[in-house]
Amino acid sequence: xxxxxDLHVHTHYxxxxxxxxxxxxxxxxxxxxxxxxxxxxxxxxxxxxxAALAKSITVIIAEExxxxxxxxxxxxxxxxxxxGLSPAETVDEIKRQGGLASVPHPFDLLRSSRLQxxxxxxxxxxxxxxxxxxxxxxxxxxxxxxxxxxxxxxxVPVTCSDAHLACEVGRATMVxxxxxxxxEFLCNLRSARSFARKSPLWVHAATKLIRYRRRRGAGWPxxxxx
Length: 226
Hints:
Low-confidence stretches: 222-226
Distance between the termini: 36 Å
Radius of gyration: 16 Å
CATH class: Alpha Beta
Largest sheet: 9 strands, mixed
Number of strands: 9
Structural class: alpha/beta
Helix content: 25-40%
C-alpha cells in the first residue's frame, strides 16, 4: 500500500497563512493526498488541531523552527520546540523527541529565513531530510557539493509545497510505501517518487498581504511571526 503526502503545509497559526485546520482534510483529499505534515512557524497548535479534526487522512505533527541561524523543521514531534535555539540545539531537541530533522528551502537565495550555509554544513551529518524542491522557491541555486555530501551521509532529498494558501496544497508531493513510526517513515522515504509543480509568483504577494492584515488586526489573532 502506498501513501501520498505533502511534507510542508501551514495553517493560520502561521502569521503568513490563511488556511484553517478544518479545511486541510477536504483540500488534501481533493488533491489525492492521504498524509499531510503541518509545519507551522514556531508552534504545534495548528498541527495538533488539524490532527484532532482529521478522520480520513494522517497528520504528521511538525514545526518549522526559527533557530539563531535560520529555519529547521522537526517532524513527528510530541512537544513544542521554542525558537531562538542554535541549529545544533534545535536538532538535539528534535532527536530527543524521537523526531526527524529537515532543512527547508536551503537553496532559495531570496529567503532570509533559510539556514545559513555554515550552519547547514556544520549539522548536515545529523539531518535526516533536505528540501531539494520547494514549490515556493523563487531563486533557487542548489549547492551541488553540499548535496553530494548530504546524499553520501544518507540525508534524504524531499519535495514539498510549503503551502500557505488553499491553492498550494499538494503542488509538490511524494508517494511512498505506508509506514509505522518515524524510523520506517524515513526508510520508506528513500525510495519515494516525487511529483512537483512550482507555485505561481503571486502567492508571495498574497502571504505578504495576509501578514500585513494580521499585524493591523484585520485578520485572525496574532500568530508567531514568519
